[in-house]
Design a protein that fits this description.
The protein contains 3 helices and 8 strands; from the N terminus they run αααββββββββ. With 195 residues, it is of the alpha+beta class.
Length: 195
């Protein structure tokens, strides 16, 4: 799904995003590994997202964490086994507001369970319009990334999505650590799931 978005989003980002939302909702209704409980699949219609906002599509400078003393590892237990989130780089970006300083999020490397880059975050919409545990923005294990260069990462918060545990307690998910809490509202991406 993300591979298609990466290809088509250079020409018409909003159209690629709308196609992504349709396919993601279809996947929730029909896929065998959908995070929705079986009893909900029959009545489920669509995932809810904020309207597309092109201001929340931005390139973030990626700076590797080279000082081993600054690298943190967070252990997590998943049904698939034990994994570790290891801080890998910091991504720096300026939010689309004239009065904001640049912000920083930690990009993690998942050791164990699939391995890949992972960027969860929280913001001031959590627990109100969005899932209280935060959302995911970048997860290369699932192919959920929109691209990167050697020194920058494409962050499109319009594609931010809920972890599987937001839909059913049968799922266990790594949530955004405190250091990835942003001090502002990001009105882009997926809303909280409503039963």
């Amino acid at each position: 799904m993300y591979a298609e978005v990466r290809k088509s989003s250079t020409a018409n980002v909003e159209s690629a995003w709308q196609d992504f939302l349709r396919k993601r909702s279809d996947m929730f209704r029909t896929h065998a590994q959908s995070p929705l409980p079986e009893k909900r699949k029959g009545t489920f219609n669509t995932l809810r997202y904020f309207p597309y906002n092109p201001a929340w599509r931005l390139r973030a400078q990626a700076v590797l964490i080279e000082d081993e003393r600054s690298v943190r590892a967070l252990a997590i237990d998943l049904p698939e086994g034990r994994a570790s989130l290891r801080s890998f780089a910091h991504v720096r970006f300026t939010p689309p507001s004239a009065n904001r300083d640049p912000l920083r999020l930690t990009l993690y490397w998942i050791e164990g369970y699939g391995r890949g880059l992972f960027l969860p975050f929280k913001d001031r919409t959590n627990g109100i319009e969005t899932y209280g545990g935060g959302r995911y923005l970048y997860d290369t294990i699932k192919g959920a990334d929109l691209g990167a260069d050697p020194d920058c990462v494409l962050l499109d918060f319009n594609f931010a999505y809920n972890p599987s545990c937001a839909y059913s307690p049968q799922w266990t998910c790594p949530l955004a650590p405190a250091e990835n809490t942003l001090p502002l509202r990001i009105e882009a991406g997926e809303h909280a799931f409503e039963e």
